[in-house]
Amino acid sequence: MEFSERLRELRAEHKETQVRVAEAVGMTSRQYQGLEAGTSVPNFHNLCALADHFGVSLDYLAGRTDRR
Q1: How far apart are CA 68 and CA 58, in angstroms?
Q2: Residue 43 carries which DSSP code?
Q3: How far is C-alpha 1 from the chain's CA centre?
Q4: What's the rounded Cα separation, in Å, for the pair 59 and 11?
Q5: How many helices (H) and strands (E) does the chain have?
Q6: Structural contact between residues 31 and 22, judged by C-beta atoms closer than 8 angstroms
Q7: Threshold 0.90, pTM exceeds
């Protein structure tokens, strides 16, 4: 599973909007939309913030493992 798909899946599980996740991790909603659309990639800081926000490992978020 790709990063963008994993991100959409996690957001749906948490019943959050793109705007809410973006605010929670300190990015603009436009930046976050690009991540879910697969048109941009996160910097290291944002990747860590997203993993922390959703309570998953970086490897899970990046699609390197299915273990959360």
Answers
A1: 9
A2: -
A3: 13
A4: 17
A5: 5, 0
A6: yes
A7: yes
Distances (CA, A) of 23 to 2, 17, 18, 32: 23, 10, 9, 9
Amino acid at 41: V
**What pLDDT was estimated at residue 43?**
95
> Shortest CA distance to 10 belongs to which of 43, 34, 2, 30?
2
Sole residue written with tokens 């970086």: 58
Provide Rg for the chain, Cα atoms. Answer: 11
CA distance 34 to 31: 5
**What confidence tens digit (pLDDT) does each residue in 12-44 have?**
999 999 999 999 999 999 999 999 999 999 999
